[in-house]
Every structure is written in structure tokens, then in C-alpha cells.
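User: I'm preparing a small set of examples for a lab meeting where we compare how different chains pack in three dimensions. I only have the primary sequence for this one, and I'd like the structure in C-alpha cell form so I can line it up with the others. Please keep the answer compact; I'll paste it straight into my notes.
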Amino acid sequence: MVSPADAREAVDPTPPEPASARPRRAPGPADWAFVLGLVTILAVLAFPFAPVTQIQARYTWDADTGPAAAIPLMPYQPISLTATIGCDAVRAAAPGTTLFSTVPADPDPQAVPLQGLDLVAAPGPGLLVRSAGVDLGTTPVGSGPCTFSVGSGPARTQVLRDGTPVLAVDGDVRPAVAGAFTDVPPGPGAPTLDLVADTRFETSIGPLKAALGTIAVLGLLGTLVALRRCDQLVLPRVRLFARPRRPRAVDPVVALLLALWWWIGPVTVDDGYIAGMVRSPDGFIGNAYRWLNAPEAPFSWYDELLREWASVSTSMLWLRLPSTLLGLVAWLLLSRAVLPRLGRFAARRSTPWIAAAAFAAWWLPFELGLRPEPWVAVGTLVALVAVERAVARRAVLPLAVALVAAGLTTTVTPGGVIAYTPVLAAAVPLVRLLRTRRDLHRFPLAVGLLAAAVAPALLTVYDQSLAAMLESVRIRRQIGGGVPWYEEFQRYQLLLTPGDFQGSLAKRLPVLLTLAAAAGVVWTTLGRGRSGIAAGPTRRLLAGFVLSVLALTTTPTKWTQQFGVLAGVGAAVLVVALVGWTGAALRVRTRGRTLTAVLAGTAVLTVVGALVLSGTDTWPFVSGWYVSRWDGLRILGRTPVVLWTGVGVLVVVVVAGWAVWRATGDRATVPAAPPRWVPAPATAALVLVGIVLAVQMLGFGRTALRAGWTVASDAAATVRGQSCGLERDLLVETDPAAGVLPAVGPFRPTLPTVAADVGGRELPGIAVAGVGSSAWLQLDPAQRDGGLPVVVTTTGSLRPGDSLLAEFAAAPDGPSLAALPVPLAGGTTPTDARLMAPPGASVVRLSVHAPIADGAVSTAVASIPRVPRLTPMSAVLPAGTSAILDWPVAFAYGCLTPARIADGSAGLPQWRVGPPAADDSGAVTYSPVHGGPFATPRLLVTEQRMAMYVVGNPTRDPRQLYHWQPRQPMTTVTPVVSQRAVSGLHSDGRIRLIG
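Assistant: Understood. Below is the C-alpha cell output for the 995-residue chain.
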């Protein structure tokens, strides 16, 4: 019997076609997604290890160029150092003489000292060597000609005599270098110095690294195109973006609100910090205020973007424009993409206006300025929209776009990690989606999505080496300034701190109201009757919001300004809650039995409103000069918080009592709904939002109409072509001695005259000790007219019961018109007291009541009263002048150039612009413990303070100007700068930190 196979073979004896001859299948989009995704991943992995171009700065000095030279290194220690001195110079010096040092022997007492390299003549004769506070020992000089050389590096510091090691210490004891100083005269055997500065952060992208980055970007784009083609083959009608909707009446209102806020709104606490960094005149962008000027890597691409923006204009108006444009983008995403996805309620006429109120409540207090929060808010919304698009359309490309957006957002700032929360919140439907896409199973899908996830890592080290980035992270972690995750409560503590701008009512409102609203959304989405609210997307939105709040714990700092990263998803959650808690929605949700829901919502809003309205209308720095007196407002003799709380409690008690009365009567019936006069919780919440928005807008609107400098007047001046910021409205007291008031009358002082420090200079003054007074002094005409204050500079503090008064009179022998207390700030820092003379006064004197008891004497000192002789700041510091701009003030000086930090040196600036005398936050820039970049030049100068005054507001202390005077004549050493290619793993050892 013949089998079927045998029969077929007998009929058709032709052998089968070999596999090699069969036609090959053309590569499909899934194949391209796999190949291009793999190329992207490999290029991204190789990118951090690729070489970068690093500058190398070598400084050389010898005594022939002068006995002192300024070489203020930044970081403080060099990569390597070699100092030499001849034995004849050591023998000729008296024991104990410092022959050579890298820090001055007589630094400014107000500066924080640093430990350098000291070569000291020792008995014997011998040479004592000390580096970074560590004694290497003493070696005899002996007889005959010889040369000592000291070599110091990260691993070892040793002393050689004619090339033979005589002293050595293992480990990193490299000295701090502020300069080169010697008393040895020029000639043979005089000291010399040769060092290589630490420039590990001063790098630029190398050719190979640029090529890898280009390949990675092109590979990513190709991968996305391939994924799109895969989606089109399965789902031909899928669009990545929805069709744009027509403009609505609310859109120009929101745009106008954002534009007005851009013009008159407040600065943030870190606008000056960021402006001072990105406006660095050349070189890389480092943290110019602390952490040894290390770059912000892996979060530094945002700074580079701002630098390019600031290269067009440094005016406040221009620098704040990106955040305003991002506000428009965020509004369009919220109103056009997010809300329609959350349910049919988005089509109601009232919803856009509710959304506008919620959006404004979040955006206005947090998002204007240079901080990264608006970028994170928009990036999170993009990720949310893309994820929901992927879930709704079962498409893979939107998911890849979401991963790219989340990665880009995370590389802006640590708080950007919340951009991944929409992906996590939608994990179940996304996994379901990926399992159903059989056309992309296994490697193509995994590789394509992984490429999208890892590609943003290019921005973390795009012009830095991997080793330098890791070192910058180590520096920030070891120096400190961060707060661990488990102390997240500090953020909420600051939010509720009375009188602190971090806890203003404008910042309390969106955070507290949205946290309460989140609980309301949970109740709204349970069961049926959701009044047009889509359960799935809303629950994912809420889960993402909760995860975002938890993700904030990972940020290294705990400032309330960082709540701004929640603005996008927070506004969406608030809108859903407001829509779900209207009267109509509650009736649908509860089938008419709204009493319990209304009572619960009213009780919660009473508490939230009380916490919000108890805050103050307070803003940082220049925005806080003319704030509204919200805490002093009275309505019917009561504060708004009392009225809000009283009305809320009254409504809850009355309605609850009414319900109990109805339920316990003869005809016991439990009311289904509260009386009609009781507003729905959403209505009360919108009233609260309206109150706070009105306080913000009206407060800054009133400020905009004031005479003198305001943020609004600065914007107007910028439009007129005057973009120098606050500088044009400041006056400087360049010479305090020129304004000392002359003595008048026959009355002699009863207190002796002593020297008073007024900030690097001395004026006649009195000790605030004993009982007595100074001579009577004639007031200047400008003081008698009320145009200028009487200025008294003080140091120290008063003991309990002591007093220092400024007595005013019409004449020396006339009656006293007023005796104003002169405040003393305490401490050793001179502080100005500015007092306005009362009408009719023509003379003034200081009166002291500080009895000496048990031998204890007050150490406080007050200068003789003076009138400030003022010069426009623009005449003292013309446009383009280089100065250190302390971080609290750097945002308002667009015409000054931030001091240069380059070639491994901080240079020797002549000027420093600091915050008011009462604010010492700028001191970190000069503190070695905090890694202050200008700690080394601070050792070389005496800081002469020059008080500043605002035109039209003479009693306000707006800023302090400091003139840096070198303590001794010094030459400047110009480095020899070259370039070299270093691999991504190249390291010059660790930077040695102080403290």
C-alpha cells in the first residue's frame, strides 16, 4: 500500500526548494524599532564614557614678580603643586619667619581662614613645612648650596632636598591656595610656585561624544517613527494628538491673567540664585554660590537653556517670559486634553471657568520666575496626556512619548521624578495594552520602549565626564544642605508657619484645598452617579497625584516653592472635586440625599479656609516691600479668618441641629437635603479661591501704581529700553565720614568719644555704657524736610534695662520733641539705624542709659549721627561692571556682570552687592564649610560697606554694596591655558572638602 506522501513524491519527483532560495521577508516597522532602539540604547550607554575636552590651567610665580600675588583657586586646592626655596634663603631668615605661604599672613578678621602651605624658618637652621594644617616635620638645612622643593598631590605630599625625599605624608593634605606670599627678597634661592588648578568641571563636549549623542537622537527619532508605523498598521485611525479645539471665551481671560501676572507678579526666592549662575560671563555653568562651584549635573541642561535665553537680554521681564509661556501651554493641556479625558463634564459651560480658577490658584503663587517648577508641571501634564492617549487608543507610540517626556522632566530637577507617576498610576492598563500588541511582542517592544526611557539620560552628562558628574554629586551630598526624605514634614511645617513667605495664604490655598479635594474625588468616583466623571481616568489621575505628593519626599530640600511641580495634576484634581461637589452633582451622586455630604464638605472647607486665611500676604525679597496688610484687614470689626470660621461653624451647627430636630420630632423624618440657603461645598470652595486670588491680584496691582521701584515699574522701564533693574533707583553712601553732623551749642558731651566701625571704616562714636549723652548735632536741611534719615551705625546689643535714644529738639536749649529708640541688631556686624526727624526738629543727640553694675560694662558702640551723602549706584558701578552678586539680590541687576569664575580661579573682584544688613543668607558664598566659591579671594581683601538707599523710601535698607580693597599690593598671575581630551572615567582625585 502506498502512502499519500509516497504517492505525491511519485507524481512530482521534483525535490523541494532549498531554504536559502526562498524570498526573504522585507524588514518591517517592528524590526526597525528593534534595530534603531538597540542603536539608541548602545549609544546612550557609551555616551557618558566618551572623551570630553577639558582645559588645563597652570599658574607659575616667583619672587621676581613681587612679594605677593593673588591666585585665589576655586576649588581651593590645586591638582598638583610644587614650591621651591633655596637653602641660603632659609639660613638667612630668623627662626619663626614664614618664608613662603599660599595664604596671607594677615587676612581680614571678618573672613573665614583657610589652611595653606607654610614654609617656616626653624632653629638649627632648619625648614618647617606645614600643609593644610598638617605638620610634615622639620628638616635641617645643613651647609652648602641646596634647594628644597615641596610637591603636593591628592595621594602624597613630600619635601625633597636636591631631589632626595626628606619629609613625606601620605594622603590628601594639599594646601588651600589664595596666592603666593613671601618676605624673601628676589634673587637666587627665592621661593617659586608652580601649580595646576583643578578644572575638572570646565569641560566641553568632545567630537566622539557629539557623534554618539547625534546617533542616539537620530536613533530615538527613528524608533518613534517605527513605533508609529506599527500603530498605524494595527490601528489606522489612531492620532497621537487630538484635534485642536476652537478658542473659548475663557482662553483670552487666562492669557490676560498670565500676562498681567508676568508684568506685576512676585519674584521667587531662587530667581537671584539661578540668574547669578546662568549669567556667568564665560566658561561652564557652576553653582556660583556654594558647593565649590560644582555644576548642577545631572540636572544642568535646564541651566544651559536659560543661559541661551539670558544671552538675548538680562532684564527681569525677559527672563520671566518662559514661565509665562509655559503657563499658556499648561492651560491648553489642562483644558484641551486632560479635562475632556476625565469625563463628559468638561463639555459643560461652567467647567472651563472652574478650571481657570483652579489653574490660577495653583499657577500664580508657584510658577512665575526662573525656578524649574513650571517645566515640571508641563512635563508631567504631557506625560499624563500621552499615557491616557495610549490607554484610550491602545497605541504604543504615546507610551514611548510619555517615557521621553518623563525622562526629560526628571533631568530638569530632582522633583521632576513626579513625571513618571502617570505611567505608574496606569500600570495595569498599560501592561494589558502591551500584552495585547502581539505584533510587537518580545524584543521590538521592549527595546523600543527602553530606548525612549533611557534617551533623556544624554542630557545628564552632555558636556561633563561621568567622573566629574559623580564628583559633583559627592560634593553636594557631603557638604550638605539637603534634608532626608523622612523629614518631609518640614515642608508642611513651613507651609503653616505664621508670617513666613513660605506659608503665605496664596501658597496654602492650592496645597491644602487640593489635598482635601483628593479625598472628595475618592468619594465622588465610588459607585454610580458620578455626574459625567469618568471613573478610570479620574482614578488614575488621583493615584498619580498621590504618588506625586509622595515623590516629593525624594527632593533634597523641603521648600514650599517645590509644591509648584504639582500645579498641573493638582489643578486637574481640584477641578474634578469642584465639579463633583456642586449641588447638582451631589444630588445625582446621593440620589437627592445630600445632607451628609454637604455637612461634611462644609466642615472640611471651614478648617481648610481657616488655615488658608490665617496666612499672611507675604512674598520674598523685593516683592515683599509693599505687600498688602491682609493680616490687619477688618470686616465688621473682625478678621476674615474669624468671619470665615464663624460662618462655617454656624452653618454646620445650625444645619446639624435642624436635622436632629426634624429627626426627633413627633413626625420623625430625616431631612434628605439641607436648606436651600446652604451653599454647596464647591460654591464655598470657589468663594475661597476667589478671595485669595483677589488678594494676590489687587495687592500687586496696588503695588504697581506706587511711585518708585517695583517689579511692575521695572517691566515698564524695560519696555522703554531701560533694563538695568533696581540699580537705577538706588543711591549709595560712598563716604560715611562726609555726612557726620557738626556739633552745635555750648553743651559739652558727657560721654567720651570712641571709634565706631561703620563697615570697614571708622567714625567718631560713643560707647553705649554708663549714663550720659553726646553733643548736640545740627541736622542737615534734607533731614529737617523729611527727605533723608538720621543714620546711626551700631554694633553689639543692649543689656536688659539699657537704652540708647536719639533725642530731637528745635534748639540745644529747647525742650525735647521726641526721643526715638535706636535699635541694635546685636553681634559684631555694623548695622545702620535710620530715623526720621520729627517736624520742627533742628538738632539731635544720642542719650545713653546703661549703668555700670558689678563691673559689667556694655560693649555696644554707636556712631555719631550723620546724614547720608548719596551717589547714584549707576555712577559708582556703571553698566558692565563686574561684581559678585549675592544670590538673594542677583536677579534685579541686569546691567552688572557677575564675577567670573574660570581657569580654576575665582579672581579678585572689586565689588560685591549683598542683601540688607539684617540678612546674612549671602554668607555661604564666602564660607569654606559651605564650599563658597569666593572664600579664597575674601582672605585677600578688606570689605568696606557702603549702605544703599531707595529713591523715595529712605528708611528701607534695600541692599548693601561692598568695596573689596586688597589688604596689600598684589600682582595678578595669568595662567597658561591649554586643552586636553580626557575620558569619561578620568579623575584627578577627589576634591578635599573643608569641615
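A couple of notes for your slides: The chain is about 35% helix and 15% strand. Residues 418 and 550 are 9 Å apart (CA to CA).

User: Perfect, thanks.
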